[in-house]
Amino acid sequence: MSRNEQGYLLVRAGNRRIGLQLSQVVEVTQLGTVHPVPSLEPALRGVVALQGRMVPVVNLGALLEGSACPERTEALAVVVMLDDRRLCLEIEEAEILVRQPALPVPPGETLPWAIGVARHEDGLVPLIDLSALGSRLMEAGST
Length: 143
Prior knowledge:
By secondary structure, the protein is mainly β. It is 13% helix and 45% strand.
Protein backbone atom coordinates (compact mmCIF):
# COMPACT_ATOMS: atom_id res chain seq x y z
CA MET A 1 0.00 0.00 0.00
CA SER A 2 1.19 3.46 -0.75
CA ARG A 3 2.01 5.46 2.37
CA ASN A 4 0.18 8.43 0.78
CA GLU A 5 -3.15 6.65 0.29
CA GLN A 6 -6.24 8.31 1.67
CA GLY A 7 -8.82 6.20 3.42
CA TYR A 8 -9.10 3.61 6.14
CA LEU A 9 -8.73 -0.11 6.68
CA LEU A 10 -11.60 -1.42 8.80
CA VAL A 11 -10.51 -4.19 11.17
CA ARG A 12 -11.98 -6.18 14.02
CA ALA A 13 -10.03 -6.05 17.26
CA GLY A 14 -11.46 -7.41 20.46
CA ASN A 15 -15.21 -6.86 20.46
CA ARG A 16 -15.10 -3.82 18.20
CA ARG A 17 -14.71 -2.72 14.63
CA ILE A 18 -12.33 0.19 14.08
CA GLY A 19 -10.64 1.99 11.21
CA LEU A 20 -6.90 2.54 10.73
CA GLN A 21 -5.53 5.28 8.46
CA LEU A 22 -4.12 3.78 5.25
CA SER A 23 -1.29 6.31 5.34
CA GLN A 24 0.06 4.46 8.42
CA VAL A 25 -0.62 0.90 7.22
CA VAL A 26 2.40 -0.92 5.77
CA GLU A 27 0.78 -4.33 5.26
CA VAL A 28 -1.66 -6.91 6.55
CA THR A 29 0.17 -10.14 7.28
CA GLN A 30 -0.13 -13.53 8.90
CA LEU A 31 1.34 -13.35 12.38
CA GLY A 32 4.17 -15.83 12.79
CA THR A 33 5.62 -17.12 16.04
CA VAL A 34 5.42 -14.43 18.71
CA HIS A 35 8.23 -14.44 21.27
CA PRO A 36 7.20 -13.14 24.71
CA VAL A 37 9.22 -10.26 26.17
CA PRO A 38 9.00 -8.53 29.56
CA SER A 39 6.85 -5.39 29.53
CA LEU A 40 4.79 -3.22 31.83
CA GLU A 41 2.19 -2.83 29.03
CA PRO A 42 -0.33 -5.70 29.33
CA ALA A 43 -1.36 -5.34 25.66
CA LEU A 44 2.16 -6.18 24.45
CA ARG A 45 2.08 -9.76 23.17
CA GLY A 46 5.83 -9.92 22.41
CA VAL A 47 7.96 -9.61 19.28
CA VAL A 48 7.85 -11.29 15.89
CA ALA A 49 10.44 -11.58 13.12
CA LEU A 50 9.34 -9.65 10.02
CA GLN A 51 11.65 -9.23 7.05
CA GLY A 52 14.71 -9.87 9.19
CA ARG A 53 13.70 -7.48 12.00
CA MET A 54 12.15 -8.08 15.40
CA VAL A 55 8.93 -6.06 15.54
CA PRO A 56 6.78 -5.53 18.67
CA VAL A 57 3.30 -7.11 18.60
CA VAL A 58 0.51 -5.28 20.44
CA ASN A 59 -2.96 -6.78 20.75
CA LEU A 60 -5.06 -3.86 19.49
CA GLY A 61 -8.27 -4.97 21.20
CA ALA A 62 -6.52 -5.26 24.58
CA LEU A 63 -4.81 -1.89 24.10
CA LEU A 64 -8.10 -0.13 23.36
CA GLU A 65 -9.83 -1.86 26.29
CA GLY A 66 -6.95 -1.24 28.68
CA SER A 67 -6.69 -4.94 29.43
CA ALA A 68 -4.22 -7.80 29.10
CA CYS A 69 -3.86 -9.80 25.89
CA PRO A 70 -6.35 -12.62 25.50
CA GLU A 71 -4.85 -16.05 25.97
CA ARG A 72 -5.31 -16.99 22.33
CA THR A 73 -3.01 -15.28 19.81
CA GLU A 74 -4.74 -14.14 16.62
CA ALA A 75 -3.25 -15.21 13.30
CA LEU A 76 -3.53 -11.81 11.63
CA ALA A 77 -1.73 -8.50 12.13
CA VAL A 78 -1.58 -5.06 10.58
CA VAL A 79 1.93 -3.66 10.37
CA VAL A 80 1.85 0.09 10.89
CA MET A 81 4.52 2.76 10.80
CA LEU A 82 4.71 5.16 13.76
CA ASP A 83 7.55 7.63 14.12
CA ASP A 84 9.63 5.69 11.57
CA ARG A 85 9.22 2.45 13.56
CA ARG A 86 7.22 -0.60 12.57
CA LEU A 87 4.70 -2.07 14.95
CA CYS A 88 2.43 -5.12 14.54
CA LEU A 89 -1.14 -4.68 15.70
CA GLU A 90 -2.69 -8.08 16.38
CA ILE A 91 -6.25 -8.11 15.04
CA GLU A 92 -9.00 -10.64 14.45
CA GLU A 93 -9.91 -9.65 10.92
CA ALA A 94 -9.12 -7.07 8.24
CA GLU A 95 -12.48 -6.35 6.67
CA ILE A 96 -12.64 -3.67 4.00
CA LEU A 97 -11.02 -0.52 2.69
CA VAL A 98 -13.04 2.67 3.05
CA ARG A 99 -12.07 5.41 0.64
CA GLN A 100 -14.16 8.25 1.94
CA PRO A 101 -13.35 11.22 4.14
CA ALA A 102 -13.85 10.78 7.86
CA LEU A 103 -17.18 11.97 9.19
CA PRO A 104 -17.20 14.00 12.41
CA VAL A 105 -17.75 12.15 15.67
CA PRO A 106 -21.46 12.60 16.47
CA PRO A 107 -22.26 15.06 19.27
CA GLY A 108 -22.50 13.39 22.65
CA GLU A 109 -20.36 10.39 21.61
CA THR A 110 -17.13 9.75 23.47
CA LEU A 111 -14.75 7.77 21.30
CA PRO A 112 -11.23 7.93 22.76
CA TRP A 113 -8.52 8.37 20.13
CA ALA A 114 -11.08 8.70 17.30
CA ILE A 115 -10.44 11.30 14.61
CA GLY A 116 -13.83 10.67 13.09
CA VAL A 117 -16.17 7.89 12.04
CA ALA A 118 -16.96 5.96 8.86
CA ARG A 119 -20.32 4.59 7.79
CA HIS A 120 -20.63 0.80 7.75
CA GLU A 121 -23.66 -1.40 7.19
CA ASP A 122 -23.63 -2.14 10.95
CA GLY A 123 -23.44 1.54 11.92
CA LEU A 124 -20.69 4.05 12.53
CA VAL A 125 -17.10 2.83 12.96
CA PRO A 126 -14.57 4.93 14.92
CA LEU A 127 -11.47 5.85 12.93
CA ILE A 128 -8.52 5.63 15.29
CA ASP A 129 -5.75 8.21 15.36
CA LEU A 130 -2.71 5.96 15.79
CA SER A 131 -0.51 9.05 16.19
CA ALA A 132 -2.48 9.97 19.32
CA LEU A 133 -1.99 6.43 20.57
CA GLY A 134 1.62 6.58 19.38
CA SER A 135 3.39 7.23 22.66
CA ARG A 136 1.53 4.43 24.39
CA LEU A 137 2.06 2.10 21.45
CA MET A 138 5.76 2.92 21.22
CA GLU A 139 6.18 2.50 24.98
CA ALA A 140 4.50 -0.89 24.65
CA GLY A 141 6.79 -1.70 21.76
CA SER A 142 10.00 -0.71 23.57
CA THR A 143 11.65 -3.97 24.44
